[in-house]
Amino acid sequence: MLELRKDIFADERDDNLNEVGKGTQRQDMLGHVTGTSTYFNDHKLQGMLHVRVVRSTQSHARLRRIDTSEAERSEGVRRVIRGADVPRNLNTLLSLINFGKDDEPTLAVDKVRYRGEPIVAVVAETLRAAAEAAAKVRVDYESLPSVFDVEEALKPGAPTVNETYPKNTFTYHERYDHQKLRFGDVERGFAGADHVLEQRYQMSPIEHAPVETNGSIAAPDTNGRYVVYTSTQALFFSLDTCAKILDLPSNTFHFIGGTVGGGFGGKVDTLTEPLAILAAMLTGRPVRYVLGREEEMQFGPPRGAERIYIKDGVMRDGRIVARQIRGYFDSGAYTRLSSYAVVKCAAHLPGPYTIPNVHGDIYCVFTNRTPATAMRGFGITGMDFALECQMDKLAHLIGMDPMEFRILNAYRDGDMKAHRREAKNTALIECVQVAAEKAKWPIREEFRRMSSRKDGGGARAAVPSTPREPAQPRSAPAQQRTSYDRGLSMPPQPDPPPQAPAPSPGHGATRFSSVFGTRRR
Amino acid sequence: MAKTPLQFRHNGRDVALFVDGGTNLLVVLREMLGDVTPKFGCGQGGCGACTVLIDGEAHLSCLTLAEAVEGRAVETLDGIKTGPNLHPLQRAFAEGFAAQCGYCTPGMLMAAKALLDRNPQPSREQVVEAISGNICRCTGYEPIINAVLAAASSRASA
């Protein structure tokens, strides 16, 4: 079944890969099938209290008054926690590696920026008592205008979501509002291209939805320490984040993780540990804080939404000569990890292809939506979706087989990538060849003979002359109509006028009406 | 709050306790009896992680009022091994890589056991139907379906 092509990776480390291709039992399998694998919530501690959090019902509002008096008198309540009780209420996750400014409170104080944002934590003898008391907390909101669309958020006059970043964009190197990639001269590339195709792509937020929700249990230990059982995917990262928020040395905490009931990136944001520990500190009792499913959906972060514009110049023979990309990552109301996803995305451009002129602008944008975070390949996955859709459309446009089109444009060993690193062990050509073979997809002999280890480097290893650009007004990205969108069965049109007026959408297009809704020619 | 006396059989053992009105079976099993094999996933009957058998039938313990099991037999994953020996379903799940994070596994196994107990030789469609209320987010459903079918055929040949 398994075929190892070691020849393609000859200069990688020399091991025998003794385990790959053989079945090896997981060490935790016996625990899983007998139900004895211990998840954080399987610990039961004597005298354990429970946390219920009061969350914002508004997407964007000033907090005029928070009245917890009735909740404090409610049966079984041991403590009500407000933002002022949190030693260092403001934090940003990547401050641990000195990246970004503290922009997110553990408990909101003067303003809420998304629906579901935590405002008050109630600690009580039972979860029911905590929930009943939480319902008695009165929050007086003054609604503010909200912004939910990444491009709307960048327009002059848009509401400021997060005062740490007044222009609604993350700030890189303390001065840049986006990540910029310049390689060669795309304008010259477009001018010399046989066809230019510009398209708009969009990806919705995606919830990880692990079957186990986020949560943790914190308990006072001996010697003033606290033991913390947690669902985190990032044990030491969470530990250090708690040390910062609670303003204590990290050896105050003994974090115990291990078996996680599904994560996929949704359990790296240290959502519950700071409040669980703080509640344990303030009550002297073990405290459990577990998200319900609705909280997991609304407060637990998703993979962020993305909007992407790709403009390509392609020659009739299939070579892509220029690729311009503008991408907007929806970070939601706070940074979390989207700032980093944007850096990864910029380094990934223009995808695994060698294109002599590349131009990329990628923005990390704040909106009044649930903050986004990591999820499997974040920064790359949404962009790859757009790039590969675009590749199919380009192949269709010039009447070329999509597999052969990818082989022709694939990067090869020795090529210069747009971020100025040499491509090594690329193997994309071989992957496409094997995929075509397995799918019984016929490709022509000359494409079957191409190799990632031949014909790369040389002129393709050079960094092209890249003009320094004067400050120029942004041109509005556009969306062209293509015959591809009307169905793959239609014959390719060899020379469609790129500026043709858009026909009224047929059945196939109405599905995408929300995506194409703001089409400008 | 008024407490209600409650007796039922838990994995072959008689238990008696007092519960608050409105307490669900999942809380009784996990918090009061210390049987943590049923899992909390949603509390809304949407995920199947809390599936247990009541008189042999698969039920969602998070939506079952504790009082409703008075005098009945409740079976969880904790009770399906025979001494040190794994149940054929447990063996098939382990051998077929039908668990990754393991969190949905107790519910999957109980839903599958309810099926095999009443229909030892189910079709693939019947297996799919039996676990259709159980969500898995890691392994995908194919290895799970195959493991249930493998357990059925191993019992048939044993």
- Runs of chain A in which pLDDT lies below 50 for 5 or more consecutive residues are 496-521
Question: Can you tell me the number of structural domains of chain A?
Answer: 2
Number of strands of chain B: 5
Tally of DSSP helical segments of chain A: 15
CATH architecture tag of the largest domain in chain B: Roll
Question: Using CB atoms under 8 Å apart, which protein chain pair has the greatest interface?
Answer: A-B, 33 and 36 residues
- N- to C-terminal separation of chain A? 49 Å
Q: What does the overall shape of chain A look like?
A: globular
Give the overall shape of chain B, derived from the CA principal axes: globular
Helix coverage percent of chain A: 10-25%
Secondary-structure topology with pairs:
The complex is a heterodimer of chains A (521) and B (158).
Chain A: H1 29-34, E1 49-55, E2 61-67, H2 69-73, E3 77-81, E4 90-91, E5 104-105, E6 111-112, E7 118-124, H3 127-134, E8 138-143, H4 150-153, E9 179-183, H5 186-192, E10 195-203, E11 215-220, E12 226-230, H6 235-245, E13 253-256, H7 273-283, E14 287-290, H8 293-298, E15 306-314, E16 320-332, H9 338-348, E17 358-366, H10 381-398, H11 402-409, H12 428-438, H13 445-448, H14 507-510, H15 513-516
Parallel strand pairs in A: 1-14, 12-13, 16-17
Antiparallel strand pairs in A: 1-7, 2-6, 2-8, 3-7, 4-5, 9-17, 10-15, 11-12, 11-14, 15-16
Chain B: E1 3-10, E2 13-20, H1 25-32, E3 51-54, E4 57-60, E5 73-75, H2 88-95, H3 105-118, H4 124-130, H5 142-157
Parallel strand pairs in B: 1-5
Antiparallel strand pairs in B: 1-2, 3-4, 3-5
Can I get a quick summary?
The complex is a heterodimer of chains A (521) and B (158). With 521 residues, chain A is α+β, with helices and mostly antiparallel strands.
Tag the structure with descriptive keywords.
heterodimer, A: 521 residues, alpha+beta, Aldehyde Oxidoreductase, domain 3, Aldehyde Oxidoreductase, domain 4, 2 domains, seven-stranded mixed beta sheet, five-stranded mixed beta sheet, 15 helices, 17 strands, disordered C terminus, B: 158 residues, Ubiquitin-like (UB roll), DNA polymerase, domain 1, 5 helices, 5 strands, 34% helix, 17% strand, globular
